[in-house]
Amino acid sequence: MTLLKMKGPQTIGALAEELGITEMGVRRHVLQLEREGLARNRIVRQAMGRPMHMYSLTERAEDYFPKNYHNLALELLRELDHTSGTEAVNVLFEGRRRRLLAQYSPMMERRDLEERVAELSAIQNSGGYMAEWDREDDGSFVLREYNCPIRQVAVQYRRACECEQHLFEELLEAKVSRSECMADGGQCCKYSIRPKV
Predict the structure, then answer these.
(1) Are residues 33 and 75 in the same domain?
(2) Carries keyword DNA-binding (predicted)?
(3) CA-closest candidate to residue 27, choices 8, 17, 13, 40
(4) DSSP bridge partners of 145
């Protein structure tokens, strides 16, 4: 994958030569990458001779290479905070909350609280939060998130956590309280969800 990333599309022969292994060995690895959706094969016709099979990485393969998005996000937030003040940063988080509310509210329509909690858990899982939920004996619910994709941002800008809690309250139309938070060093972000009285 590193060779394809650095050198671009390559033939099996070129990869074998670069790696110092047999073409058969390279072919096995490349076919596995294709099965996993990480590489693709493109046939290139030549003026003379047989067409060449050129292998390259797919967009999905990009996830296997280091990214530094959280540092960029933090730098941009710090710059906005420095030039325009904390309120400008808070406006950004509020804007994100409103956008997510508009995006997910239709998914919650005509559902009872348990169905909304299950849907919220699925939404959070699709965003990488590793969420799970349980119904408690008293009829309340608990939602736990074991991963926080925005943790580095949330550690420095707690408004991100506040906006998430408000978003949950609005989507669920329920009372939501957080008893544990990864930005505070917790094992997970844990929310108690109770019907509004």
Answers:
(1) no
(2) yes
(3) 13
(4) 131, 189
User: How many Cα neighbours within 13 Å face the side chain of 151?
Assistant: 16
Q: Which residue has the tokens 């550690």?
A: 155
- DSSP class per residue in 135-180: E-TTS-EEEEES--TTHHHHHH-THHHHHHHHHHHHHHTEEEEEEE
Torsion of CA 152, 158, 162, 163, to 10 degrees: -60
CATH number of the domain enclosing 29: 1.10.10.10
User: What domain range includes position 150?
Assistant: 69-195
Neighbours of 28 (CB within 10 A): 12
Q: Is 181 exposed, middle or buried (0-12, 13-18, 19+ CB in 10 A)?
A: buried
| 179-188 pLDDT tens trace | 999 999 999 9
At 52-67, the pLDDT tens digits run 999 999 999 988 887 7
* Token pair in block for residue 11: 């033939």
Task: Please tell me whether residues 118 and 177 are part of one structural domain.
Answer: yes
**pLDDT score recorded for residue 180:** 96
Exposed/middle/buried for residue 66 (C-beta within 10 Å: 0-12, 13-18, 19+): exposed
Q: Residue 91 corresponds to which tokens in the numbers above? A: 């406006």
The rounded distance, in Å, linking the Cα atoms of 191 and 176 is 6
